[in-house]
Amino acid sequence: MPRFGAFCVRSLAGLAYVGILFAPWPVLRAAELGGKPEKSEVIVTYAQPSAAFTHLWVAQEAGLYKKHGLNAKLQLLNPQVSAQTVVAEEADFYTDGPDLINARLRGARVKYFGGTMQQLVFQIWSAKEITEIQQLKGKTVAATTPRAAIDTATRETLKRYGLTPDKDVKILYVQTVPAVLSSVISGNTSAGTLSAPNTLKAQEAGLKLLADVGKLNIPGLQVTYGTTEKYLKDHPNTVLAFLKAVAEGVVLSKKDPALAKKTIMKYGKIDDPKLAEGSYDYFAPYWALSLSVRSDAIQAQFAYMDEKEFPLAKNTDAKEFFDNSFVEYLAKSGFLQKIGMSP
Question: Is 173 helix (H, G, I), strand (E, B) or coil?
Fold first, then answer.
C-alpha cells in the first residue's frame, strides 16, 4: 500500500507538471499578477502632438505613472517608427492605431492589450475654393504615413462620398499632422486630414471643413495600446501598471478639463488657450470609459487593408491580434469600477 500511495503521489505530480507545461501562457501568468512592475523605467510612444493623446499626457503631469511604480518617458514618434521601436524592443508601449496589425501580418509577434479610442476621429479640411468633398476628384489630399490611422480615415471617408482613393484622389504622405496643414495652406495639396489642435488652426487659416470623420462613426484603431507577446509574458505587472495609469488619466482628463487643457498646450506646443479648449471639446466625447480592445474594430481594419499588400488579412482571426486578459483582471479586481470605468 505505501508503494501504491507513493506511486499515486508521483503520478499526480507528473500530471500536474504536464498540465502546467501545456497550459496557455495567460493561465501561467495569472498567478503572477498583482505584484510590483517587473520593469519601472518605460518608454511610451505616441504618434502626433494631437489632443487624442491627452490622457497619456495627463497621466504624466499628474504623476499617475509614478503612482503605479513606473517612471515613464513619453516619446513622440511617427506611427510606423513607433511600431518599429516596440517590435525591436527599443520602446515598451505603442499607443496609436493600426500599425501593429500591419507588423503582425508581416510576422512580428505583437498584440494590443487595451484601447480608449476605437473609432476614427479626424477632420478633412480643404482650400477655400473647394466647397464639397466630391470636388476633390482629380486632386491631391495630404495624409501622414501609409496605413496609419489618418490614412485609413482619409481613404474610408473618400469612399463614403463615392470617391476611389488612388484613382479619383491622389494621397500625398507628408509624415506629420502639422505638415498636412502646411501642405494645404501652401497649396501643395487641395485638402488634408487633420486632428485637433491643427483642425482649429485650419479654421483660423480660412480653410474649409469638408468632412467630420468622427461623426461618420467609422470603426478603427486610433488610440490603442500594444507591445510584443514576449513583453506581455515577461512584464505582466508593468502592463497592468501602465493600464491603471492610462485609465486614471482618461477619468482625470474628463473630470479636470483645466488640467487637460494645460497639458494640451504643453505637449501640443500651442500658446492660445482657445486652441486648447477647442481641442479638448472636440476629443473629450470620444475618450471611452472602457479599455477592452474591440474585435469589430480590428476586423474593420482588415477590411481597410490593401488586398495585394496583405492578401491574408480578410481571412485572419481578429482575436489573434489582441489580449484583453489584463483589462479583465483589472475589472475583476474592482479597480476599473472604483475609478468609474468599465472593461
Answer: strand
pLDDT tens-digit map of 151-209: 999 999 999 999 999 999 999 999 999 999 999 999 999 999 999 999 999 999 999 99
CB atoms within 10 A of CB 106: 10
CA distance 74 to 31: 30
The grid coordinates listed for 250 are 482618461
Q: What angle do CA 7, 8, 14 make, to 5 degrees?
A: 90
Could you tell me the three cell numbers for 82? 513607433
Each residue of 16-39: b (16+ CB within 10 Å) or e?
eeeeeeeeeebeebeeebeeebeb
Distance between CA atoms of 114 and 26, rounded to whole angstroms? 15
Write out pLDDT tens, residues 245-257: 999 999 999 999 9
Tell me the pTM. Answer: 0.85
Note if the bond before 197 is cis, omega within 30 degrees: yes
Angle formed by the axes of helices 54-61 and 236-255, nearest 10° = 100
Q: Which three cell numbers stand for residue 169?
A: 484622389
| Longest distance between any two alpha carbons in the chain, whole Å | 95
Domains with residue ranges and CATH for the chain: 31-120+219-339 (3.40.190.10), 123-216 (3.40.190.10)
Put residue 270 in one of left, alpha, beta given phi > 0 → left and psi -120 to 50 → alpha.
Answer: beta
In Å, what is the CA distance from 126 to each residue of 90, 134, 279, 298?
38, 12, 19, 30
End-to-end alpha carbon distance in the chain: 52
Question: Torsions phi, psi of 309, nearest 5?
Answer: -80, -35
> Going by C-beta distance under 8 Å and a sequence separation of 6 or more, which residues neighbour residue 340?
251, 289
